[in-house]
Specification:
The structure is a single chain. The chain has 443 residues and is α/β, with parallel strands linked by helices. 39% of the residues lie in helices and 15% in strands. It is built from 13 helices and twelve strands. Strand 10, helix 10 and strand 11 (365-368) form a beta-alpha-beta unit.
């Protein structure tokens, strides 16, 4: 009983401390979340112009989702100063909208409170808590130690602010049956967009399953025996930590383009050197979709590309985790033309979709990124297929479809992890069956 009282006292003290220091965070009091519903092509054009060529008074609206189709839902974070101008614009073009959150700060506080309450347990869990960067690295070191000889940590570079870009390699201790010294490999990353907290949480869950299920799940054992798994939970650690301590809705990296720049950061998923700056970007350093001054201007994206290319020819599968939207996407984003391997990728995507939906009936759409999301260039997905020549490449946009958006409650971490892991696991198993005749790695 005394221990429980102590836990509650510590919780209250921590809660008070967080409330006391919350003034140091960016304040979204009075900011509202709009849901806008374009009904025809003209209205969609208005929203797309607002996104890519906004008038001065409506610059840097926070697009939580993109205007891509008539009848689709577009979510917009709007400051008190912009609300009247936005409502005037929408009314002028008779675009239906509703305000679904009157005060985003209240939503942020509730989200933070729920995450804080999960920390009453003695040990922080990846199943129900959004860990900050340092906590996640501590957990990663512990599970690597627990995994012993099958796991190792590798720093593939440093972020702009000097944080390690740490990935875990999960591999089999079995010796290969051929003379080659390299197995085929699987790459999974997350966290390139800082505010998409469910993505790193899901990547950590994947690691948990690969480590803990190896001795009890024959399918996991087959996948670890047959492939080297490389998982980078935080492509953008600076932005992710900034979203914990300063601005929960921060998206970009934290690099400084110039010593006295007004705005900082680059959209890492517009910064890869493949059809860079051709579509779906804003050439404004203050924009959330600013692609950077040059391709690979960001040390984070350059480190990812360098590492992947250093092992070129070994990669079988590339998966990058994002949120939100419940989408499973193949290349390309920069064009509506389909890649050569589109049919094979779609076959596996449909396997993953059914596997995900069979768990909790969470419905996913599948297709190329330009078809089911929007056109974008300089993405890691398109680069992985177009430059690194990885045969199976996917972006997975995780839960949900807009009810919570980027603020998915921590009580959905576990269910998101379970269903998404089922999808990725069965995708990889099907890939292995399709490619096994071509692979020497038959155990």
């Amino acid at each position: 009983m005394q221990r429980r009282h102590l836990q509650i006292a510590c919780f209250l003290l921590t809660n008070c401390f967080i409330r006391q220091t919350i003034t140091t965070k960016d304040d979204f009091t009075g900011h509202q979340l709009f849901r806008v519903l374009p009904q025809n092509r003209e209205q969609l054009d208005v929203l797309q112009k607002l996104r890519y060529h906004p008038p001065e008074k409506l610059e840097n609206l926070d697009f939580w989702s993109e205007p891509t189709e008539t009848g689709g839902k577009v979510y917009l974070g709007v400051s008190p100063e912009q609300r009247k101008d936005l409502e005037t614009l929408l009314s002028k073009h008779r675009i239906p909208f509703e305000i679904i959150a009157n005060n985003i700060q209240r939503v942020l506080d509730e989200h933070a409170q729920r995450n804080l309450e999960t920390r009453l347990n003695d040990e922080i869990s990846v199943y129900d808590t959004y860990l900050d960067f340092d906590e996640a690295m501590s957990w990663l070191r512990r599970i690597t130690f627990q995994c012993s000889s099958r796991c190792s940590l590798h720093n593939i570079g440093k972020s702009f602010e000097g944080r390690n870009l740490t990935l875990i390699k999960v591999q089999s201790t079995k010796e290969p049956s051929t003379g080659t010294d390299r197995k085929p490999s699987i790459w999974i990353d997350s966290g390139i967009h800082a505010r998409e907290w469910i993505a790193p949480a899901t990547a950590l869950y994947f690691i948990d399953r690969l480590v803990l299920d190896y001795d009890v799940d024959s399918e996991v054992q087959d996948l670890v025996d047959g492939y080297d798994w490389y998982i980078l939970p935080f492509v953008n650690p600076d932005g992710y930590q900034y979203s914990h301590v300063k601005n929960r809705l921060w998206r970009k990296t934290r690099s400084k383009i110039a010593p006295h720049a007004v705005c900082v950061g680059v959209d890492g998923n517009r910064n890869f050197d493949f059809h860079w700056k051709s579509v779906g970007y804003q050439d404004d350093p203050c924009s959330d979709i600013y692609p950077g001054p040059i391709p690979f201007s960001e040390p984070e994206t350059k480190a990812v590309a360098d590492f992947i290319l250093s092992r070129n020819g070994t990669w079988s599968l590339f998966v990058t985790l994002h949120s939100y939207g419940q989408l499973l996407m193949t290349p390309f984003g920069y064009t509506t033309e389909k890649p050569e391997g589109y049919d094979k990728m779609m076959k596996l995507a449909k396997v993953a979709k059914l596997s995900i939906e069979n768990v909790y009936r969470t419905e996913y759409a599948v297709g190329s990124a330009s078809d089911i999301l929007y056109r974008s260039s300089g993405t890691s997905r398109d680069w992985a297929y177009g430059v690194a020549k990885i045969p199976y490449v996917y972006t997975i946009e995780l839960r949900d479809q807009g009810e919570h958006g980027f603020l998915l409650p921590p009580n959905q971490i576990l269910s998101s992890g379970i269903e998404t892991w089922e999808g990725v696991k069965n995708l990889a198993l099907t890939m292995d069956q399709l490619e096994r005749p071509k692979s020497p790695w038959n155990f």
